[in-house]
Amino acid sequence: MxxxxxxxxxxxxxxxxxxxxxxxxxxxxxxxxxVLLTLLFxxxxxxxxxxxxxxxxxxxxxxxxxxxxxxxxxxxxLLILQALGWMVFRLSWSAELPGYVVLYGCLSMLGWIWxxxxxxxxxxxxxxxxxxxGHSTVLxxxxxxAFAADNLAFVSWMSPQWWWSLETSEQQMEFAFWLVRYxxxxxxxxxxxxxxxxxxxxxxxxxxxxxxxxxxxxxLLGNSDEDQSTWKDFGKxxxxxxxxxxxKGSVLLQLLVLMCLGMLGIERAINVFVPxxxxxxxxxxxxxxxxxxxxxxxxxxCLLKFLQGGGAGASGFVSNLRSFxxxxxxxxxxxxxxxxxxxxxxxxxxxxxxxxxxxxxxxSIDRGTSSINSLLSYIVFSIFPTIADIVIAIVYFISxxxxxxxxIVFVCMALYLTLTIFITEWRTKYRRDMNTQDNNAKSxxxxxxxxxxxxKYYNAESYEVGRFEDxxxxxxxxxxxxNASLALLNQTQNLIIGLGxxxxxLLCAYFVTEGKFQVGDYVLFGTYIIQLYTPLNWFGTYYxxxxxxxxxxxxMFKLFTEEEExxxxxxxxxxxxxxxxVEFENVFFSYTQGKEILKDVSFTVLPGQTVALVGQSGxxxxxxxxxxxxxxxxxxxxIKIDGQDISKVKQxxxxxxxxxxxxxxxxxxxxxxxxxxxxxxxxxxxxxxxxAIAADIHDKIIGFPDGYxxxxxxxxxxxxxxxxxxxxxxxxxxxxxxxxxxxxxxSALDTQTERNIQASLAKVCANRTTVVVAxxxxxxxxxxxxxxxxxxQIVERGRHxxxxxxxxxYSDMWQKQQQAQDSDSASDxxxxxxxxxxxxxxxxxxxxxxx
Length: 851
Prior knowledge:
This protein is of the alpha/beta class. Helices cover 64% and strands 8% of the residues. Helix 1 (25-54) packs antiparallel against helix 4, helix 10 packs antiparallel against helix 12 and helix 14 (428-450) packs antiparallel against helix 16. Residues 582-816 form the ABC transporter domain.
């Protein structure tokens, strides 16, 4: 029969808190559930009242379905069963059942049941004015205190009353129950920080966005990504980083990586032995050891210190050698990232490039590339070694000093890392906003400089400078918030480190005065703890820099995740060009959903023919050119060249046979020779000059002071419009394509220049399949077929004379252009007559005076 004779075991009193090097089990198992239940019952009841009065039911569509939430409930239930199981175990194991066991079991079960109730309540209800996300402070505090209480058991590491020795079956079972509590409470605390069963964003924000006006809808509380953790998709980001760290295909670089990792292990061992040898020197000086022994110890210590450097591997021989060997690996990473991203950007569709902001893209590439290098360096050579040093220190202090010192290091580390993570996550939004404002300022500067002509046309220099200054001021506001929150983080870290050093030093000094430790042990503790806190002090910086790197990489990762709109099929072959027959068969296309640009367009361009596309603006002429060059894929029908669907062949092989002369030619900021050579980069100087002769621009180039070495300036602005067009024609001639696309190539030029360039184009297009988009109908009179488009459909087709005879849309367009041309000619004649009238009297008077 089980009896409960007293509250504690025989010979133990509640007044006895510390017995045989540890807390009494009676005191521990009375204090923990009492504090936990009081905390939860008091504040949890207030929270329930608050929810009942001011809360509202959460709409099910906003509540995420999460397996981690079910895990939270499951862990709480497991803790309830653990408390019950511990009572049953103590009941079956001993005939005497202490009162504290019953108290602990009942209070613990009640507490965890109450925690499950609050967990479910927070999932069903929400406070109307609550604009935060995550669990309530009550639940988070309860889980944190429960986990801290299980860590409190480490204080009694040396006590024979506790289960740490695992000598008896009873101690082994007690240890198993503690493991369940420790694992469940720790996991609940970590899951509570994530709050998987609650909306990831403030609930009221979700409701407001759901009900906002669609037409004028913008999020009421700003960008939804502001509160998003930078650790989101961490695994995906790491998988993207790993290939850049391990150099594939280079045995030498792979060997360098392994050597650097090996040196990390050497540094960890050195960090342990440096304070140990320092301790030995102090003890040998105080106990009168021989000079030979002392000198040997000093020499070994100095060698280790030389290898270690200024503490924690900073600027030591091993660290410097590792940094030197890592240079090549870092250069490989830098090169591969930039090249892959550059290739990816060039593979993106025309739609993306038309909408991009060049300044944003360049800043994202610049910051993202540098952040990858720093990220790999911080993770591999700072975070992992620091964690290893901390774990080694805890084990060393527990095994060679006592559990108190290990506990001091552990508590300081836990507080330090927890507060560092909390504060750093909180200040993430400031860093992200600072990047946004930085991008905005740089984009304004780039856009303004690229469009400097427009700025000067409208005398808007002061306006642009003012806009740039406003952007800088907004950036500086975000920068101040970032730096101010950084100062708060640093002060918090220094406070924790200082308190930990003070506590450990006082305890160690006490043991020295009691004769339990030697003076060298105090020196060892001070040296080791300062050496340990050096990387720990930098740990916050490492974490912050890693997070900043993730933030800086976000824009770059977004560039990597941009989908290619036009992709080659997996087994796509090369275009086999035979004659150059182009066929459009029932082609449908739209840039945006619901607005079709081309509707059932069908036509054929026979080999060597010239087909002209005419029509009003927006009728789909230039779209046909872009589809044929496969800047976009059709949404219906198909386009064929020599019977081959161009969507089934490789883009590179298709574009190798097509030459384009656009309306607005943009040249690289290089010399004329290299701009022409861009048509075929392997061409010789002689071939470049022959292409220039064919384009009727060779004599003009020779007339320049620098000839073919003349720099054309940004976008070719140092050349006139006609000169740029002739360079584009020469470039196309050099490419020697079988199909020519002319997209209003002369519409922006004057009449005389247009006629000269038309002659050059005629040479290019001779015996080649040609598609011409024309605005001036006089330039396509000789076309084999003219297609007239209206609202994305072909409404007329035929030769020039045939279309005029029909008297349809083409005839109307022709008459209007002729009338406009006659009007311009009459205007020019009147101007000349007026000038003649003004000059005539002046001439007569002069003659009379001369007479």
